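User: I've been trying to design a sequence by hand for this structure and keep getting stuck. Would you show me what you'd pick, starting by listing the structure so we're on the same page?

Assistant: Good idea, let's start from the same input. This is the structure you sent:
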């Protein structure tokens, strides 16, 4: 059972995806020196994820609104963008072979930019195997994803690094 003590209280976990029900749970926070709308626009633009999200090499629109097929480290995931409250909240669920994931983002305006929180709940046999062999794998992915979001948001027109 993962340590869930740092779970953010404002995240809306879908049924079956609370941190307490996870095979892997992690959360990362950072200040992004850009407005929340800039970070949100990057996160919500799923077709552009292969350009900047670590491990994602392909995305295709799915058959329904807000659904996508995503290729992540060679594995196909069906992704549903379930929560989009611009520019503050975004959450998506993904299903792949032996794994189910829910990723939530909270973006809060603060002095100098945006306080960004990313949290992941991962379930399934693949998540159990990874947690046993590499307990920090999910945290590493979160850290990379946050670093890329920070870099791109801050270098975007209207971003803090502008």
């Amino acid at each position: 059972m993962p340590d869930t003590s740092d779970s953010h209280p404002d995240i809306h976990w879908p049924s079956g995806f609370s941190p307490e029900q996870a095979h892997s749970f992690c959360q990362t926070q950072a200040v992004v020196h850009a407005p929340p709308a800039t970070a949100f626009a990057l996160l919500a633009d799923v077709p552009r994820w292969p350009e900047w999200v670590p491990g994602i090499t392909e995305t295709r629109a799915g058959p329904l609104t807000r659904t996508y097929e995503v290729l992540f480290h060679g594995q196909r995931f069906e992704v549903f963008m379930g929560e989009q409250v611009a520019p503050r909240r975004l959450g998506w669920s993904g299903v792949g072979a032996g794994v189910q994931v829910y990723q939530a983002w909270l973006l809060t305006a603060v002095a100098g930019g945006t306080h960004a929180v990313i949290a992941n709940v991962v379930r399934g046999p693949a998540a159990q195997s990874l947690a046993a062999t590499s307990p920090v794998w999910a945290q590493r992915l979160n850290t990379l994803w946050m670093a890329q979001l920070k870099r791109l948001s801050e270098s975007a027109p209207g971003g803090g690094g502008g």
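That's my pick for every position. To get oriented when you compare it with your attempt: The chain has a mean pLDDT of 89. The first helix runs from residue 36 to 44.
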